[in-house]
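Hi all, posting the design record for the shared folder.

TITLE: backbone redesign
STEP: 1 of 1
STRUCTURE INPUT:
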């Protein structure tokens, strides 16, 4: 497909656009004129335009460059539709990012609390513990494993016996 010129790709408007996008991505031309042919963009459905914008955003194109490309569209209804969809997708991405960030923060907080609890249980049960034990506990990312280590910290007869469970 790389050798076929954009103008020679045939099919329905949505099919042509899809082929052009697949051809353009590997050569970093998703924002090039061939893909942004207004007569082609004007003849596709709003769903197809949304898919194109999602594809471009998933290909990690920078939003300012995408906005600039949309601003170059001469047909006002098409420009408005593309800008509206791009804004919606950008907001959707922000929301997803916030949700993911919040969940990661919650998960990290839970892990930190578990680690602190394991270390505190070791202090209560056995007094001091070596730095290597702290480092090993800090490296544990699985909440279930930390839960098991907490129980082991309370039940172990010595810090050495606990360390064997790490």
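Okay, here is what came back for every position:
SEQUENCE:
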């Amino acid at each position: 497909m790389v050798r076929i010129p954009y103008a020679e790709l045939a099919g329905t408007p949505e099919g042509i656009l899809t082929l052009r996008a697949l051809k353009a991505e590997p050569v970093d031309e998703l924002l090039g004129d061939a893909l942004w042919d207004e007569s082609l963009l004007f003849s596709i459905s709003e769903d197809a335009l949304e898919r194109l914008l999602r594809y471009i955003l998933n290909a990690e194109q920078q939003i300012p460059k995408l906005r600039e490309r949309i601003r170059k569209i001469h047909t006002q209804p098409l420009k408005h539709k593309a800008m509206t969809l791009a804004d919606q997708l950008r907001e959707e991405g922000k929301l997803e990012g916030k949700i993911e960030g919040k969940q990661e923060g919650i998960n990290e907080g839970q892990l930190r609390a578990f680690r602190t609890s394991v270390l505190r249980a070791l202090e209560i049960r056995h007094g001091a513990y070596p730095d290597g034990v702290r480092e090993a506990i800090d490296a544990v990312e699985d909440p279930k494993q930390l839960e098991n280590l907490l129980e082991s910290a309370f039940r172990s007869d010595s810090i050495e016996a606990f360390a064997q469970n790490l």
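COMMENT: The chain is about 70% helix and 0% strand.
Let me know if anyone wants the other runs.
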